[in-house]
Specification:
The radius of gyration is 41 Å and the shape is elongated. A hairpin with a 5-residue loop joins strand 2 and strand 3. The N and C termini lie far apart (about 95 Å). By secondary structure, the chain is α+β, with helices and mostly antiparallel strands. The chain folds into five domains: about 80 residues; about 210 residues, 2-Layer Sandwich (Alpha-Beta Plaits), CATH 3.30.70; about 180 residues, Rossmann fold, CATH 3.40.50; about 70 residues, no CATH class; about 70 residues, Arc Repressor Mutant, subunit A (Orthogonal Bundle), CATH 1.10.10. It has a nine-stranded mixed beta sheet with strand order 19-18-20-21-15-22-23-24-25, with helices on both faces. Strands 4-1-5-9 form a four-stranded antiparallel beta sheet. Strands 6-8-7-12 form a four-stranded antiparallel beta sheet, with helices on both faces.
């Protein structure tokens, strides 16, 4: 059977101590059916306190097959029920790995063709010093105060084919390294006196990780320092050559006295979980390069062959110490560097007359398909609304702001809004934009609020779900929800943004996301320097669209309110009383919402309450509108002129009239402009105070009667000319030449 080792790995998820008798028997039957040996079952069963020597062998002989045999699928399901998660392959034909499928890796990790590797012969030492070798081994692997586990006693076990094997017992586990070295130095000629007499047919074993002195299970390991690499599938000389060619960080290399060498490899894990991951990685690299490692050896409490011992007439001896890379980290970096999948350099001459075709433009003049875009801006800029507008524009093949979009499918990854709010927002924006709803099937929404994971974990999940959907763009909103690492760290943010490259490359689509500005004024900065955190954010995408708020002058806001309400009243009068509209409204009336409001009051008597309420809501909406300037930094296209726009919930509208063009961003204004504005503002305040003072004087100087200009001048202590100027600016009072008095204006409504 292929991949038998995978089945043994699944046994690590199944604790025999938690099984009833029949479940335990089923495991044995499944192992025999799939071609394993009784030793595999026996070794696994030893993790149960109920274990009895010889019981596995007696039961094994009774497993003679049945009409419905117990197969490896039983073990697979038992492992899944106990936490094993099948891996997934990110390919066109994605599927869950079964227990007997090959586990594939993201990288190839094959660097060696063992058929071309010359074996490195290992010769038995002619001047063998067993005690010295064992001392060197212990000194290399252990601190003097650490407990060393070793085994010299064995018990016989038949292999089912009549051959008797010598299996190690539990052994000794409460001797310190310092104690053993001291005794070995003292009794140099009698290694058996120190470790105990051993069966010279079987040899002896030693555990390569320190123990707590209470037992020999994984839980008794105090430091996850080393792992065992052993393979008997190739010749001894080739094993030796491959281990050295891969530069494994080997602390001790021992000849087993049999068909293999035992490499004690530096793992240096902080805990059992990290140990498992590192050993899996180690074994994967070894397997890819022709060293079929025995996966039964992956436990940190595993026994290895003890140097300085005879085994069936051959020596178990120390071949070498501290070979290969110095540490796990150094070796891991070395392997990852070897495994890069970078393309080879290309000659420009080869493509000069046959240039590859550029990716089509997704957003004309801004972004190509398969490239990345970042939208940056402060809060309240409506970045999410802008992304929704973009999603709709791409889905329908319409304009986004001022740019034409190619039509395609869009995946909008919603990380912030609850599901109902997000769906409503899409409908509200669609409706407000007035775009015909012809291609709703081009918009998919993945609602992940409350279910987010870091981007490096989200990317493969996204790719797997989106693989066959042919998305033109994936929009991720917002990225702070999936941020990994410190946003001010360049290397951590490079790793983070690389996930967007991964999505874009795997799916062949554009990746569009938004990020917030840093704190403080942004006007004096370039667009690519406004995004919060490391500069990687701004320099990584192919297109950066930056939003900065414009301060709307008071007069411009009044004009906007006036124009909006004029149009509102025009539409209402024309719709509800068209005859009045045609006969009573003059040309000048179209420029003043006060006059149009007056006409509405006269002509729409039956609708006044509704019209007034609607006008009030409309005015509030206009006053809540904000103004924004869109700037860009593009990698593939020429820089575009800034685009000015209004944001009135829930959509952005380009300022085609140009009223926002002359507004300067706060920090862009020079000192003179700022000083001038300050003086103008101060003058306006003073003028306002003077007018209020003037109006109070008119009201009070003649005890409620209409006063003359001279009376007001005398009351305020100013001249008549000043009174006349203030009358010209007053919206409340006017001068009646007939009566030569100051009168109050009629309000009209």
């Amino acid at each position: 059977m292929e991949n038998k080792n995978n089945l043994l790995e699944l046994l690590e998820y199944i604790n025999p101590a938690t099984l009833d008798y029949q479940e335990w028997v089923n495991v044995g039957m499944a192992l025999k059916h799939e071609g394993h040996t009784v030793q595999d079952w026996d070794l696994w069963s030893q993790n149960d306190v109920r274990y009895k020597e010889g019981e596995c062998l007696r039961k094994w002989s009774t497993f003679n097959g049945a009409g419905k045999p117990v197969t490896g699928g039983t073990i697979f399901q038992m492992a899944v029920d106990r936490g094993y998660t099948p891996l997934y392959i990110n390919s066109e034909n994605s599927y869950a790995l079964d227990w007997n499928d090959e586990i594939k890796s993201d990288g190839d990790y094959k660097f060696i063709d063992k058929s071309w590797i010359e074996g490195k012969e290992i010769k038995e030492p002619s001047n063998w010093q067993p005690v010295k070798e064992l001392i060197t081994y212990i000194e290399t692997l252990f601190e003097s105060t650490e407990n060393v586990g070793f085994v010299t006693e064995t018990y016989p076990l038949e292999d089912g084919e009549g051959k008797v094997l010598h299996k190690p017992k539990k052994g000794v586990y409460d001797r310190t390294a310092g104690h053993l070295i001291e005794k070995l130095n003292k009794y140099k000629d009698d290694i058996g006196f120190v470790i105990g007499d051993y069966n010279k047919e079987a040899g002896a074993w030693i555990r390569f990780n320190p123990l707590d002195g209470k037992g020999v299970k994984n839980d008794n390991v105090t430091e996850y320092r080393y792992a065992l690499v052993e393979s008997d599938k190739t010749s001894i000389s080739q094993q030796n050559a491959i281990i050295r060619e891969l530069e494994l960080p080997v602390a001790c290399l021992v000849h087993s006295g049999g068909k293999s060498v035992h490499a004690i490899v530096k793992i240096e894990a902080k805990d059992y979980q990290e140990y498992q991951k590192r050993v899996d990685y180690l074994y994967k690299v070894c397997a890819k390069n022709g060293l079929a490692v025995d996966t039964q050896n992956k436990n940190p409490s595993r026994l290895s062959r003890m140097p300085g011992i005879m085994r069936n007439g051959k020596k178990q001896f120390l071949i070498d110490t501290n070979i290969g890379k110095n540490s796990w980290d150094e070796w891991f970096e070395f392997i990852e560097d070897l495994n890069d999948d970078l393309p080879d350099p290309e000659s420009l001459e080869d493509y000069w007359d046959n240039m590859p075709e550029l990716a089509p433009e997704l957003i004309k003049g801004v972004l190509r398909q398969g490239h990345k875009m970042l939208i940056a801006g402060p809060s309240k800029a409506g970045k999410s609304f802008a992304l929704i507008e973009m999603a709709i524009a791409i889905a329908e093949g319409q304009k986004w702001l001022k740019w034409e979009c190619a039509q395609g499918r869009v995946l909008y990854v919603n990380l912030e809004l609850d599901r109902a709010s997000c769906l409503h927002r899409f409908k509200d924006v669609y409706t407000k934009l007035g775009i015909p709803v012809n291609n709703l099937n081009n918009v998919d929404i993945w609602n992940l609020r409350g279910k987010t994971v870091p981007m490096d974990k989200l990317a493969p999940k996204l790719i797997r779900r989106a693989h066959k959907k042919n998305y033109t763009a994936v929009i991720i909103d917002p990225i702070y929800k999936v941020l990994t690492g410190d946003e001010n760290s360049a290397d951590q943010m490079a790793h983070f943004t690389n996930q967007f490259d991964r999505v874009a490359t795997e799916l062949g689509c554009s990746v569009i996301y938004c990020h917030h500005h840093s704190k403080g004024s942004q006007g004096g900065k370039k667009s690519m320097d406004r995004a919060s955190g490391s500069g990687v954010f701004a320099r990584d995408p192919d297109a950066l669209i930056d939003l900065v708020e414009l301060e709307i002058p008071e007069q411009l806001m009044k004009t906007q309110v006036n124009n909006t309400l004029v149009k509102f009243y025009e539409d209402k009068i024309r719709t509800l009383n068209n005859q009045y509209y045609k006969t009573k409204i003059g040309m000048d009336d179209h420029y003043s919402y006060e006059k149009m409001k007056h006409h509405a009051e006269k002509s729409l008597s039956g609708y006044l309450l509704d019209v007034r309420a609607e006008a009030k809501r409309l005015e509030e909406s206009v006053r809540q509108t904000t103004a924004w300037r869109v700037e860009g930094t593009l990698r593939e296209f020429a820089k575009f002129e800034p685009v000015n726009m209004w944001f009135g919930f829930p959509v952005h509208t380009v300022d085609d009239v140009g009223v926002l063009a002359d507004i300067e961003v706060d920090s862009d204004k020079n000192k003179y402009s700022k000083a001038k504005e300050g003086r103008q503002k101060q003058a306006k305040e003073q003028q306002k105070e003077s007018m209020l003072e003037f109006e109070l004087a008119v009201e009070n100087c003649s005890f409620g009667e209409e006063p003359t200009k001279q009376m007001v001048a005398d009351y305020l202590g100013i001249n008549v000319k000043t009174v006349e100027r203030r009358l010209e600016n007053s919206k409340i009072y006017w001068y009646d030449k007939n009566t030569k008095t100051i009168k109050k204006r009629e309000t009209g409504l």
